């Protein structure tokens, strides 16, 4: 089966992390975000994936997909096309129904079950749905008999949502849906134009309500929450084997005997944890990170080559590649983009954001 993944966005809500790294390659459990999306597609029989993108760095990182067990090809946008036209450009090579996925949604959605329902109901278009408490920030559907979608409302005002069933960013298209996509650039054209027009024409749009795990990794807060959820086992297939009982320590790591690693922790290759240092889960450290003596890292995600100085504290934070935290500094509830530095003894207040290579202190 085939799929198109939309990875052409600028990742603006995830800045400053995405100034240096495109959002599809942002590490999640030390693997690129988009690899987790591809893995769920592959588990449900998808073997050909097109990435709709504007960044050749993604192809350089992922190649032909053979390491991921799928065939990967790329559809390039020379300028932002919007979701609809990006799909239309990427999809003509497909024969038969194909999945379309947002490139920032991590889920364990039962795609095979969704495809079966789509066929059983002879649907023209199927939409995966997730129940949300506040539907005002989502595309929301009204469901009729047999979960047929009778209305689609994008970001309804408070009190006017037809239900709490929100568009979960995974769809199944028959090729004819492409004929409903206008040949013009428009952000969110699928939600604002295509879905309502297909419903208005009386073609069957099938809802697929699900209680599957679902996270739109659009902000740093959600990115950090995703790691907490995954380390707690919310998606069992993504959690490395054995981490439920002991930390996962990569090859060539050096952990001093009086250091403490507790809870669900992943250390990449070549990490060093010094004497009396403490790494508390849920935390993930990328390759070649250094946590010096008496330092504390707790509830945080560190990318590769991060250095945490002696006696420093990093808590509930995200640190990009090559960040450096000086001795006795405190980073609490902060986001540091690639190469950012916090000088010795400096304390960052919760909510602090450092741009790439910015120096605090």
Provide a brief overview of the structure:
The protein has helices spanning 33-43, 56-62, 82-90, 111-120, 189-200, 220-231, and strands spanning 2-6, 27-28, 31-32, 48-53, 71-76, 98-102, 105-107, 125-131, 139-143, 149-154, 165-173, 205-210, 214-216, 248-249, 254-255, 260-262, 265-267, 272-273, 278-280, 283-285, 290-291, 296-298, 301-302, 307-308, 313-315, 318-319, 324-325, 330-332, 335-336, 341-342, 347-348, 353-354, 359-360.
Explain the overall architecture.
The protein has 361 residues and is an alpha/beta fold. The protein folds into 2 domains: 2-231, Spore Coat Polysaccharide Biosynthesis Protein SpsA, Chain A (Alpha-Beta Complex); 246-360, UDP N-Acetylglucosamine Acyltransferase, domain 1 (3 Solenoid). 17% of the residues lie in helices and 31% in strands. It has helices at 33-43, 56-62, 82-90, 111-120, 189-200, 220-231; strands at residues 2-6, 27-28, 31-32, 48-53, 71-76, 98-102, 105-107, 125-131, 139-143, 149-154, 165-173, 205-210, 214-216, 248-249, 254-255, 260-262, 265-267, 272-273, 278-280, 283-285, 290-291, 296-298, 301-302, 307-308, 313-315, 318-319, 324-325, 330-332, 335-336, 341-342, 347-348, 353-354, 359-360. It has a 7-stranded mixed β-sheet with strand order 5-4-1-6-11-8-12, with helices on both faces. It starts with a strand and ends with a strand.
């Amino acid at each position: 089966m085939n799929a198109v993944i939309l990875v052409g966005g600028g990742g603006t809500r995830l800045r400053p992390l995405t100034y240096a790294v495109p959002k599809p390659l942002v590490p999640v459990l030390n693997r690129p975000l988009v690899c987790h999306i591809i893995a769920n597609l592959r588990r449900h029989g998808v073997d050909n994936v097109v990435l709709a993108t504007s960044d050749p760095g993604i192809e350089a990182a992922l190649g032909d997909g053979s390491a991921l067990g799928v065939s990967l090809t790329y559809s390039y946008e020379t300028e932002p096309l919007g979701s609809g036209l990006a799909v239309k450009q990427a999809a003509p090579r497909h024969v038969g129904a194909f999945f379309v996925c947002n490139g920032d949604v991590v889920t364990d959605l039962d795609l095979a079950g969704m495809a079966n329902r789509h066929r059983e109901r002879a649907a023209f278009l199927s939409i995966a749905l997730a129940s949300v408490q506040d539907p005002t920030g989502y595309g929301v559907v009204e469901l009729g008999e047999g979960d047929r979608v009778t209305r689609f409302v994008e970001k309804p005002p408070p009190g006017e949502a037809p239900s709490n069933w929100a568009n979960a960013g995974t769809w199944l298209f028959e090729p004819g849906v492409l004929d409903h996509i206008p040949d013009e650039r428009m952000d969110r054209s699928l939600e604002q134009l295509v879905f309502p027009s297909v419903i208005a024409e009386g073609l069957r749009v099938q809802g697929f309500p699900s209680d599957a795990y679902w996270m739109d990794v659009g902000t740093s807060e959600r990115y950090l929450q995703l790691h907490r959820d995954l380390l707690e086992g919310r998606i069992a297939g993504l959690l490395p084997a054995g981490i439920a009982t002991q930390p996962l320590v990569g090859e060539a790591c050096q952990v001093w005997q009086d250091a403490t690693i507790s809870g669900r922790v992943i250390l990449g290759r070549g990490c060093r944890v010094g004497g009396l240092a403490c790494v508390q889960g849920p935390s993930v450290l990328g390759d070649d990170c250094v946590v010096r003596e008496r330092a504390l890292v707790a509830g945080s995600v560190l990318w590769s080559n991060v250095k945490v100085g002696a006696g420093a504290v990093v808590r509930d934070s995200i640190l990009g590649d090559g960040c450096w935290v000086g001795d006795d500094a405190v980073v609490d509830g902060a986001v540091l983009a690639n190469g950012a530095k916090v000088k010795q003894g400096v304390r960052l207040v919760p909510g602090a954001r450092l741009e790439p290579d910015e120096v605090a202190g």
